[in-house]
Write a structure and sequence with these properties.
- The protein is mostly helical.
- It contains seven helices and no strands.
- The chain has helices spanning 3-14, 32-37, 39-46, 50-57, 72-78, 86-94, 102-107.
- The longest helix is centred in the N-terminal third of the chain and has 12 residues, at 3-14.
- The chain starts with a helix and ends in an 18-residue tail after the last helix.
Length: 125
C-alpha cells in the first residue's frame, strides 16, 4: 500500500507527522562523509554491479552526493514498503525492461528550464 494511504488509515492514532517518502537508500550513516568525496566508490561497495550497468550505457556516477533522504520513519511507523529503489532500477535495466514506473512514464519529462542545453534538458555540471 502507498505511504499516503497508510498515513490516512493511521492518522487517528498517530496524528500529524512528516515523512520522507522516497526510495530506500542503500547507504549507511557511516557512508555519508565518503559519499561527498567518492560517490562511485561508496555506491560500488553498497550496490555491487552498478558500475557495469552504467558503463554499458555510457553513464557516469556523480563524483559526490551531498544528501541522502532516509525513509526509515515512514517504513517503521506506517509499515510502508517502497517498491522502487536503486536495485529495482538496476534489475529492470539488466532485464531490458524500462526502469521507470508507470507513473513516471505517464508524466514524462517536464523541463524546468526555458531553454535547451547541449547536454540535454538540464545544464551539465
Amino acid at each position: 500500500m502507498s505511504a499516503h494511504l497508510l498515513a490516512v488509515d493511521q492518522a487517528p492514532s498517530i496524528g500529524f507527522r512528516r515523512y520522507i517518502v522516497s526510495a530506500t537508500t542503500p547507504f549507511l550513516p557511516a557512508d555519508l562523509l565518503d559519499l561527498r568525496r567518492d560517490a562511485p566508490g561508496v555506491v560500488a561497495k553498497r550496490v555491487p554491479g552498478y558500475a557495469q550497468e552504467y558503463q554499458q550505457r555510457g553513464w557516469r556516477m556523480l563524483p559526490g552526493i551531498d544528501r541522502v533522504y532516509v525513509n526509515e520513519r515512514a517504513r517503521k511507523e506506517l509499515g510502508w514498503r517502497p517498491k522502487y529503489d536503486f536495485n529495482y532500477v538496476l534489475d529492470r535495466l539488466r532485464s531490458g525492461d524500462d526502469p521507470r514506473s508507470a507513473l513516471s512514464r505517464a508524466v514524462g519529462a517536464k523541463g524546468y528550464h526555458g531553454r535547451k542545453f547541449a547536454t540535454g534538458p538540464y545544464p551539465s555540471v
